[in-house]
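Q: I'm writing up a methods section and want to include an example of the input and output format. Could you take the sequence below and give the corresponding predicted structure tokens, formatted cleanly so I can copy it straight into the document?
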Amino acid sequence: MIGVTGASGGIGGRVARHLAERELEQRLIVRDASRAPSLPGAEVAEAPDYGDGEAMRRALAGVATLLLVSAGEHPDRVSLHRSAVDAAAAAGVERVVYTSFVGAAADATFTFARDHFHTEEHIRAAGLGHTFLRDSMYLDYVPFFASAEGVIRGPAGDGRFGAVTRDDVAECAVAALLDPQHEGRTYEVTGRESYTLADAAAILTRVSGREVVYVEETLDEARASRAPSGAPEWEIEGWVTSYAAIADGTLDVVTDTVVRLTGREPKTLPEFLQANPDSWAHLTGGATPS
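A: Here is the clean output for your methods example:
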């Protein structure tokens, strides 16, 4: 039995569909059963959140291998992850495939990457078999770095990042779940090219037909420009330091992980944009270039 958390979300949902296509036994662990995808042969178990250890333990009973998709942004995400990991250990889960982040470290520039490091450490300490997929930024989100006015703002300097699509991440996760030879390994999952934000702006311009520019900010300018969102300080700091991690080179990583795990090349930004015009429709009012 394979357990899939976040099965109503972007990564977990993709993984669940791949497993269903292979007619494999799986259990979808979701907050709200009514939102779980309807897939042949898939059981559904409900747990309000990772912090509800007893509900997670019940949901994971009988699961041998678990895809643990990291929780959404939260001021104490590590505690939520620890609760889920402890529940998995108590339920008898043998191996966890965890979606981590490139450059995960206790002192990572990107504050949310610190959460991933501490979660990895707890999975090890719990004695669970594990595979860590340290994903780069999602290529799917790059078009949304640009405002409707065609401006990308951030303190990324001329640093580069090896963004990867969620489709490619999901296929790597499936490979890791299905093959026990991946136990004990940590993979950095990236695209096949790295980009500066100026590169991304130029590619968006070329594909959409709408001029997009990158405007560099200082860290303080970035914090100030995001303050009107009303988001809490810890969340804004996470957003800002994601750009800072580009600037300091942490995310300038390109690997062959996708090829090794899936047998095919990951998508590039131009390929993704061409295949997903909805991702940049906010730049053109829904129109596509002639």
